[in-house]
Amino acid sequence: MIVRWLVALVAIALAVSGAVATLGQAGSGAQPWDEELSDNFVFVKVIPFALALGLALGIALGGPRRADASRRFAPATIAGHWLLALGFLLALPTGVWQYMGGILDVSLPLPLYLIYRIHYIGAMLILFTLAWFLGYWWAGTDRSLLVPRGQWRRHLTGLAHELPPRLGRMIASRLGLDLRGERPTAGKFSFYETAFSFPTWTFVLTLITITGLAKAARYVYPVPGPLLYWASTLHVAAMVLILIKVLDHLRYTLARWSLVVAMTTGRASASLAPAPRVAPASAAGGDDE
Amino acid sequence: MKAFAALLALVWAALNAVLAILMVVNAFVAKTAQHEGLPAQAALLLGGLTIGLFAALLAWECYRLVTKSAAVRG
């Protein structure tokens, strides 16, 4: 535990030094860069520090914890969730503007580099938080958001039961699932969360991260043109998918208010799965996702 | 608290609905066809329709949240 926090302290010191050196270089006036190019260089140089800092802090905060059935989320998970939300709030509208501004051929009455700057700050927060969660889950023991090996059919069957009947039957028919047997009981998280929501979040966040890193890498490495083209195209596709995911996430959680309470206070409520088609959650083993 | 959260989510849904309309409309504009090509037009149309659908679902959920909590208070 002490070693983990020592590593985290070293990561904090390195991140601060890296940020000071990078910003100092950009602000020295010695480089012939305009604001936008300068921001591009700052962003790409700070990325490794943000990832390392997130990973180190995640590992330091992770690890086994005392089981507490009254808690659904640990403070570190709540902090990570809202940091990620803040990152989306900054990066999504600015990313949409960069794309739609080109399509509509219009400009805002403020410099474009400010839009990029806000986008990069949001992207940095997202990268930091993703690394944080990776480290946090790697160091922890709770895997209740993941579908265990060999359990996909059970989780997909549970998902088909939780969906509106017509949609559930359609998906069951396409995937060859049998809905006539006993309905599976959900664990700490609903089947919608384990079999659909979390895997799709993982996919879109991986896609936006890889394509974003490929786009940013061109300022320090000669990325081939075709690769850059596909990275840019898929980055926009991932952005649209994230817009859809955020809308769906808000729809799902607002319909289950106890989830909003849990992600604010950490406390689990007796009515965590109030939707009639969702099976009641079983007793939680740990205090975190 | 529920009403405030519903209001924020409703603003988000409205902004996404505007984006969806812009995407769908611009999928059929000649300039998009000339500059971006058919795949981009299809992506704009599909993306716009899907965002519009999910924005409508979220707006409905906001309405339900407000009316449900008002009914509980009443």
Features:
heterodimer; A: 289 residues; mainly alpha; 69% helix; globular; disordered C terminus; B: 74 residues; 3 helices; rod-shaped
Please explain how this structure is put together.
- The complex is a heterodimer of chains A (289) and B (74).
- Chain A is mostly helical and 289 residues long.
- Chain A has a domain of 116 residues.
- Chain A has nine helices and no strands.
- In chain A, helix 1 runs antiparallel to helix 2, helix 5 packs antiparallel against helix 6 and helix 7 runs antiparallel to helix 8.
- Chain A is globular.
- Chain A starts with a helix and ends in a 24-residue tail after the last helix.
- Chain B has one domain.
- Chain B is rod-shaped.
- Chain B has three helices and no strands.
- In chain B, helix 1 packs antiparallel against helix 3.
- The chains are: A mainly alpha (289), B mainly alpha (74).
- At the A-B interface, helix 3 and helix 8 of A face helix 1 and helix 3 of B.
Series of H and E elements of chain B: HHH
Determine the number of helices of chain A (DSSP H or I, runs of at least 4 residues). 9
Structural domain tally of chain B? 1
From the structure provided, what is the oligomeric state, counting identical versus distinct chains? heterodimer
Query: In percent, how helical is the residue content of chain B?
Result: over 70%
Please state the CA-atom Rg of chain A, rounded to the nearest Å: 21 Å
Outline the biggest β-sheet of chain B.
none
Summed over residues and divided by their number, the pLDDT of chain B gives a mean of: 90
| Low-pLDDT sequence parts of chain A | 273-289
N-C termini distance of chain B: 16 Å
Q: Which parts of chain B are unreliable, with pLDDT below 50 for 5 consecutive residues or more?
A: none
User: Strand tally of chain B, please?
Assistant: 0
Order of helices and strands of chain A: HHHHHHHHH
**Sheet/helix structural class of chain A:** mainly alpha
The largest chain-to-chain contact, stated as pair and per-chain residue counts, equals: A-B, 19 and 28 residues
Query: What is the β-strand count of chain A?
Result: 0
- The coarse overall form of chain B would be rod-shaped
Strand content of chain A: under 5%
Radius of gyration of chain B: 17 Å
Q: Separation of termini of chain A? A: 20 Å
